[in-house]
Specification:
By secondary structure, this protein is of the alpha/beta class. It contains 15 helices and 11 strands. The protein has a domain of 246 residues: Aspartate Aminotransferase, domain 2 (3-Layer(aba) Sandwich). The chain binds pyridoxal-5'-phosphate.
Length: 478
């Protein structure tokens, strides 16, 4: 690439902008072309590449005192960063629960970067767009139009915000200033709950062990009679049950708790009912899967991610709270430098900084708004239905093979399977081999005491041909 003489300002002033924008403009156009080529050609790249030591070592350099020309930095990006990312844009990435992203969201990130809006507060369009996105999420799940919410990094933070709302519901504002004052709050979730939920109780100072892990029934859902028994035992021991967390789309097998039953129980006992629907929430957009979410419309709060099944680029988590007053009461703080005003830029209350833990916040809402607007909810629903169909296809391939076996029912988009007769160590090696060969990136999980190969079909780019190739390759290598 031609090195323009002064892409950045080199004079005595301290501005970071160039004197002449043409060099930066040309570099930006090159980057844009390359990144569109990157996405268009992603299927022909390895899914993942281990980083060579020399590349790793390049990131242990001392703080640069002098700048380097952006074209050279971009060359470094192409050589040492672009090849070594997670790989979740690739159709053959099937590990964990990772969304594939989408090109409109990529472009929206460029626009958001140019606006550089701080969405912690004040009266500007970034917050209006975010409220639109929150309203859409509530509508998608059948929650009331008055539902409040917030975009956050991910469902880990969304679950944390929900736990603090539940604490407010039970103990009132005094818990914010005085702590628990001897209250022994207990919460309930199934043993399949995501690790961030006990993490949220830990961070909230409530103690992760005060999240009681209720056993699963035969369909990998929280066993309701065991839940009742656990609550009764805690009440008898002088504890105060305050929160039931339903899981909508468990990470291991994609199971949905009986949300209607959980919500009825929570309501009867005046407990807060939260649903961790990190990826499962998007099932609401697919008629074939939507009934799995029955009861979510009764939730007091919901955590969901737009960066998983909704294919928005990372990060884009979201919390919804049925009662906006409880969300605000859980986080609002009065400070003179953030004082409200009913006109001017300091208007527009309530501000997001009073609805969650962050003050400065980026313009995440733009990429969510652009993704939902560009494709429409029905197309995202078709992605949900199609990924489930691809998973069912893989399940059928496995059932048809006498060397492979399903280790959990495939009710959604996650296929847990094993090689007949393989030890856990052999399974671990097989998965690591596939990853290191750059061919496929499934992950693993434990199912009933056995290590399973886990293929979660979340990416809109993954087709039947990709999962056929996975089954063929595994059968070839074992
Ligand atoms: C992914 C996931 C989380 C965590 O969400 P992050 O966005 O990674 O913070 C929580 N719960 C479930 C069920 C998930 O799938």
């Amino acid at each position: 690439m031609d090195e323009a003489p002064a892409i950045l300002y080199t004079g005595a002033m301290s501005t970071l902008d160039p004197e002449d924008w043409s060099g930066l403009r040309a570099l930006g156009h090159t980057m844009m072309d390359d990144m569109i080529d990157h996405l268009a050609g992603i299927a022909s790249q390895p899914v993942w590449r281990p980083m060579p030591e020399a590349v790793r070592a390049a990131f242990t350099a001392p703080l640069p005192r002098e700048g380097a020309p952006p074209p050279a930095l971009y060359e470094a990006f192409r050589a040492t960063i672009q090849p070594y990312v997670t790989g979740n844009t690739h159709p053959r990435f099937m590990g964990w629960v990772h969304g594939g992203g989408n090109p409109v969201s990529m472009l929206a990130e460029l626009l958001a970067g140019a606006m550089n809006a701080n969405c912690g507060g004040r009266d500007h369009v970034g917050i209006v767009v975010e409220r639109q996105v929150i309203a859409w999420a509530a509508q998608m799940l059948g929650l009331p139009a008055t539902t409040s919410g917030l975009l956050l990094t991910g469902s880990s933070m969304a679950n944390f915000v929900a736990v603090l709302c539940a604490r407010m519901h039970t103990l009132g504002p005094v818990a914010r200033t005085q702590g628990l004052n001897g209250a022994r709050l207990t919460a309930y979730a199934s043993t399949a709950v995501h690790r961030c939920v006990p993490g949220a109780l830990d961070m909230a100072g409530l103690g992760s062990e005060n999240l009681r892990l209720v056993p699963l029934d035969g369909q990998f859902r929280m066993d309701i009679s065991a839940l009742r028994a656990a609550m009764a035992e805690d009440i008898a021991a002088g504890c105060t049950p305050f929160l039931i967390v339903g899981t909508a789309g468990s990470v291991d097998v994609g199971a949905f708790d009986d949300l209607a039953a959980l919500s009825a129980l929570a309501r009867a006992k005046n407990l807060w009912f939260h649903v961790d629907a990190a990826f499962g929430a998007l099932a609401a957009l697919s008629p074939a899967q939507a009934t799995l979410l029955n009861g979510i419309e009764q939730a007091d709060s919901v955590a969901l991610d737009f960066h998983k099944w909704a294919q928005v680029t990372y990060e884009a988590g979201c919390v919804l709270v049925r009662d906006p007053a409880i969300q605000e009461a859980s986080f609002a703080q009065a400070t003179s430098y953030l004082a409200a005003s009913n006109r001017g830029l300091a208007g527009g209350q309530p501000w997001p900084c009073d609805m969650g833990p962050d003050l400065s916040r980026g313009f995440r809402a733009l990429k969510v708004w652009m993704t939902l607007s560009a494709y429409g909810a029905d197309a995202l629903g078709r992605v949900v239905a199609d990924t489930c169909a691809v998973a069912a296809h893989l399940a059928a391939r496995i059932e048809a093979s006498d060397r492979l076996e399903l280790l959990a029912p495939v009710g959604l988009n996650i296929v847990c399977f094993g090689v007949t007769g393989f030890s856990d160590a052999q399974t671990q090696d097989l998965v690591a081999d596939l990853q290191e060969q750059g061919l496929f990136a499934p992950s693993t999980t434990m199912i009933n005491g056995r290590l399973a190969i886990r293929a979660a079909i979340v990416n809109h780019r993954t087709t039947r041909a990709d999962v056929d190739a996975l089954a063929d390759e595994i059968l070839r290598q074992i």
